[in-house]
UniProtKB/TrEMBL annotation:
Domain of life: Eukaryota
Stated name of the protein: K Homology domain-containing protein
Keyword RNA-binding listed: yes
CDD domains per record: KH-I_PNO1_rpt1, KH-I_PNO1_rpt2
Species of provenance: Cucumis sativus
InterPro entries xrefs: KH-I_PNO1_first, KH_dom, KH_dom_type_1_sf, KH_PNO1_2nd
Keyword Membrane: no
Main location: nucleus
Gene Ontology CC terms: nucleolus; nucleus
Cross-referenced Pfam families: KH_PNO1_2nd
Length: 224
């Protein structure tokens, strides 16, 4: 037994010494300097353009400095309004720290154009896992005339009560623009909010939707 243990320990020592010899003969790892921002894209300047709908032109003029300041100062992206083309133009700079800042800024401006407040849309610049999802009422159910008006009324509720309840329960922001619905939030939360809105479109009473929301949010709270 002792001879077997001694031979085993000798084999382990031999393997470890061989490994050390192999490691010592390997060439040293190359040391690369981190890429500079302009090198990530071969030094090319990247552009994005966001169209401005006619009904968002006046709100854009009022909130321009609130949009301009975080994009230019924090994200290091150049931004301007092209009055002739009616588009907001974004461009990377030499000191842009990350190329993804351009897309984040474009998403932020696009969310504002969809109708979200600047305070809500600015979260797209600061949080990575946020998205905007859009759909129309006709995607869920074909409604016309008074039936469509009643469905929009069910989505909003009296003085917006139903919409606020869904927003607070799912930690999302919802914009109801005529027959189009836009939801801003994380992937899982958007799904819960969308399911609730679809139930309301299909004719479920608000009380039933509230109770289902409470059950889902309680389950999510337990998971975390």
């Amino acid at each position: 037994m002792q001879s077997n243990e001694a031979s085993t320990s000798m084999d382990v020592e031999t393997i470890s010494t061989q490994t050390k010899d192999v490691v010592s003969t390997l060439p040293p790892k190359p040391q690369f300097d981190p890429l500079k921002p302009h090198e990530m894209n071969d030094g090319r300047v990247q552009f994005r353009k966001v169209s401005v709908p006619p009904h968002r032109y006046s709100p854009l003029k009022k909130a321009w400095m609130d949009i301009y300041t975080p994009i230019y100062d924090q994200m290091k992206i150049d931004i301007r309004m092209n009055l002739k083309a009616r588009k907001v133009e974004l461009k990377t700079r030499a000191d842009t720290p990350d190329i993804s800042n351009l897309q984040k800024s474009a998403d932020f401006v696009h969310a504002f154009m969809l109708g979200f407040d600047v305070i809500d849309a600015i979260a797209l610049l600061r949080v990575d896992e946020l998205y905007v999802e859009s759909f129309e009422i006709k995607d869920v159910k074909t409604l016309r005339g008074e039936h469509l008006s009643r469905a929009i009324g069910r989505l909003s509720g009296k003085a917006g009560k139903t919409k606020f309840a869904i927003e607070n329960a799912t930690k999302t922001r919802i914009v109801i623009a005529d027959t189009k619905i836009h939801i801003l939030g994380s992937f899982a939360n958007i799904k819960i909010a969308r399911d609730s809105l679809c139930s309301l479109i299909l004719g479920s009473p608000a009380g039933k939707v509230y109770s289902k929301l409470r059950a889902v949010t309680a389950r999510l709270a337990e998971r975390f």
